[in-house]
Amino acid sequence: MIFIHSSPRALCPHVEWAAGRALGRAVNFSWTEQPVLAGSQRAEFYWDGQQGMGAAIASSLRGWEHLRFEVTEDAGPGADGGRWLHTPDLGIFYAQTDSAGNVVVPEDRIRYAMEVAGSDATELQRELRVALGQAWDDELEAFRHASDDSSVIWLHKVG
């Protein structure tokens, strides 16, 4: 799946062009308003292709700083899946996924987190959150759920 969580309206045709170029065919997204960010659009697009195309799609989209997106590639026979997340503030994050879509943290990354944290449990939690891409999930969560219900009312703290 390609989830465009927010795109400036003027960028939408360019996003379609970039995704289509990565897929090797023209694509048309069904764009809707993104209620979390005034003036932005959102879209979901199911794609089908060879293993590794998720990376090509994510690479083609990552150059625009005002774009929030998520690309998922399902695992296949003999190949793990992948998940790419992008936000303007954080850039891009990649995680390997298993056949159920769970993020897989490699053994060496866990060992590194344990080494850096030592006996500090709080630091270990921080390192594991980094390995799981928690900051990206936190930033994208409101954008993901904005499409669940068109009657969502967003409140903002002022002052």
From TrEMBL:
Origin: domain of life: Bacteria
Pfam families reported in the protein's UniProt record: DUF3145
Protein name: DUF3145 domain-containing protein
